[in-house]
Amino acid sequence: MNLLGQITSWSAIAYFVCFSATFNAQATLNNASLSERIIEMKRSADWQHMQILGMELLREPTLNGAAKIDVLLSLSKAAYDSNQFKDALNYLSQLELATRTKVLSDNHFKAVKLQGISNFYLGHYQQAIDFYTRALALAEQRDMPIETANLHSNLGLAYFKNFSLDLALQHYLKADELYQEFGSAQDHADILLNISGVYIRQAAYEKAESMLLTALQAFNQLNDEYGAALAHADLGVLYTETKRPEMAQASYLAAIDYYEAKNDVRHLSYEYVNLALLSYSLGQLEEGEKNANFALYYAEKAKNPANLMEAQFVLAKILFAQGKLEDAFTNAEQSLIASRTMHEQEKERTALRLLALIEAARGNIDKARNYDSQNIEAQKRLMNEDVLKRLNDYRAKYEASELSREVEVLKQEQRLQRLKEEQRSQLLLLGGIIAVLTLLTAFALYRRKVEQKAKLELSQKVALRTSELQQKADELRAANQVKSQFLANMSHEIRTPLTTVLGHAEDLLAEQDLGTQVQASVQTIYNQGLHLRDLVNDILDLSRIEAERLALEATEFSVSSLVADLCDMFQQNIHSKQLEFIVCDQVRSKAYVRLDYIRVKQILINLLSNALKFTEQGRIEFSVSEVPHGLQFKVVDTGIGMNEQQIARIFESFQQADNSITRRFGGSGLGLSLSSQLANMMNGEITVQSALELGSTFSFFVPCTVYLNSTVTDIQKPQQAQPLLSGNVLVVEDHAENRQLFSRMIERTGATVTVAENGARAVEQCLSDFPDLVLMDIQMPRMDGVEALNIIRSAGYSGPIYALTANVLTEEVKSYIDSGFNGHIGKPINKNELLSILNIHLSSEYASSTQQSINIDLTDLRDSFASTFEQERYLLIDAWQNKDFVALQASCHKLAGAASMFEFPELASIAIEFEKALKHQSESQYQSLFLALCDQLKSQESLAS
């Protein structure tokens, strides 16, 4: 029995040991699993996914205190960094409870402080003040001077937002004292920025401006872009208050540039509100509405109620000024609700006043009176609260003063008792104190002298560095001007032979006896020549992009024609390298888009050219597909590929993957940079995926609307024949040779032509003959084209009138259309464009089988124009001697148009430049351009003779 009991005892012990080992092993596995899950949560880049993982961990019963604190701290920081401030408050409050037994620990301090910051960003300023005050007490107990200064600064911001300027200034000054003793130049610049905001609110503008400029200079020296953006924003407010709108706008835009680069939607909302208010004050209501909508968009994106309240109120104010009462009422009401939710009584009053005005404008007098009554009640409530607050402050100060006085009386009695005993020791100490003070004074004077010397040396170094930077900026500006002039000259030199190539290709296409294969080849030459011409015309785009002056020109075109054009362009070269070329057009048949055809094609040419250049074997795939909100182009190759470091550099200007790529394959490294900038201008994006030695995939997404259109025809291809037309066309042109040229071109189609040499004569002809179509020059003697158009329209003529001029800039063409012209034809004349307009407005007299070519012989007209060079030169000399710059400009415009038409490119170029100089009053260029124009006329006259 004893033996059996002993065996049973040993069995129990063995069982207990096995059970303990198993339990410990399971616990170890669970701990390892929890650690891995915590690491996985921290590594998650998506906030929603991280929140789900964190909530699952917090529900784990085996999660111990330290691990729970770690999870809560990670979730709080992630929510704060993602601007999810409500979620951050939830986790921070749990973190505060979890660390309440260690109130002086770092985690507890962070929990209290971050709750204050989150409440501040949510616009709950009083709650922020409460948490900041608690955190300040903890920082003082922990003996953390910098944290104490930071919290004083935060309290100043909260009181500033709460319209307690005296308390805000008190905390700012306390923070500044601590920063001067323990802080850095960065801290001092930050507090200067905060103090200047108080001075702006107090209308101490000169002092605020001086502090802001000092802070901005400090931020620039510290390379603190965020601080500089804040300073620019405050300067914008200051310039707005002091009636300097241009400087205010520039400051706001400087801040917006930084915030857009950082995608800081909360600050973007604030700055667009400021821009909207500035536009409102200047009476620019449409611009103000656009900026207010931007502010509302970013506020909704930030999910910040304070931003939403500000943006909705400003938008309502601008909409009310525009008379859009319904929309104004909706936004003002939403702003009122938000202000009441956030207990913003000042904002509540402004919203009530605006709603009263809106209801009065809508004729709802009772509702307007109701809102006004609410405003008065809110004002009384605010005044009562303010008075009560001041009374409480005064009472507290009075009670404290009385108590202090009683304590002071007791202390005085004690001091009187000790006074006699201390007199002797004080006399002994007095001598020592005087000696110490003397030494301290001497040391202070010496230190002050050293500091003055150091400041002088620093100011001299700053002045020298500023001078060097200014000199460098001047050199860079001069180099940029040289670059722009070089690009302009190269563009001009390339266009001259290209015009000949296109002309011969067009003449060959007009021949009827060409074989099908030859005609197709010439057609390809012509199409690619047109594209090259457009690219040459846009060589200056790089400079224009850098100067932010490049404008996109949207046209309607077929997606399939774009794909076919690119295939024709690249197929032969790809096959010549024995590569497989796979084209996948997944866009619907007859699908059209409205985009800048030249820019889209330019981007795709760059991508396909790179694929061809860097692929030695395998294949190149080119695909296009419809995706939500646009088109997706892909270029896939099996070329050399890239690593991550190389991918990071390829979109920089003049950069390739590495130097060996440049040596091996050539190229400037500019194509992808320019393509990326063009894609961004279209609100699109170019992305790349690549692996070394495996190939690359470039994706180009461009937002657009894809629609089906079976009626649009491609007018880019040169027409070989033209049906006979009937109708009367009035050509108004002050240059005789141009009138003859236009008459010949139009009469070849069968139409009747009437000509007029100036605007006055055009009015007479138009009102007597009522032609079917009018082609009107703009700059003419006696009466210009715009004035003639207005008279003709007012007299009742409603037929089509087209502007006929060499001014082809986008803004100039738009001004003609806005003036009332039906369209625009540029000089030199594009025959296909002219035929297209004639076909639209004139009727066909015979069947389409009876056709006529528009190609004409211009030899006699060109010679006739050349014979006038001597006379034109004498007219220029007379105008120059008489200082008649108006006559000079008119002569230059006339020469530029005719020289372009009759292929005198150098003469046209000089005339155009001289006309521009006269128009912009660039007097420094007058003499050189005048002499160049006279020399060119004389040399062309000699060649003609």
Give a quick summary of the entry.
The N terminus is likely disordered. Helices cover 71% and strands 9% of the residues.
Give me the secondary-structure topology:
Elements: H1 2-43, H2 47-58, H3 65-81, H4 85-98, H5 106-121, H6 125-141, H7 145-161, H8 165-182, H9 185-201, H10 205-221, H11 225-241, H12 245-262, H13 265-281, H14 285-302, H15 305-322, H16 325-341, H17 345-362, H18 365-510, H19 516-537, H20 541-546, E1 555-558, H21 559-576, E2 580-585, E3 591-595, H22 597-613, E4 619-627, E5 630-637, H23 644-647, H24 659-665, H25 671-681, E6 685-691, E7 695-703, E8 707-708, E9 722-723, E10 725-726, E11 728-732, H26 736-747, E12 752-756, H27 759-769, E13 773-777, H28 785-794, E14 801-805, H29 810-819, E15 823-826, H30 831-841, E16 843-844, E17 851-852, H31 859-866, H32 869-881, H33 885-901, H34 905-919, H35 926-944
Parallel strand pairs: 2-4, 11-12, 11-13, 13-14, 14-15
Antiparallel strand pairs: 1-3, 3-8, 4-5, 5-7, 6-7, 9-17, 10-16
Helix pairs in contact: 1-2, 2-3, 3-4, 4-5, 5-6, 6-7, 7-8, 7-9, 8-9, 9-10, 9-11, 10-11, 11-12, 12-13, 13-14, 13-15, 14-15, 15-16, 15-17, 16-17, 17-18, 18-19, 21-22, 22-25, 26-31, 27-28, 32-33, 32-35, 33-34, 34-35
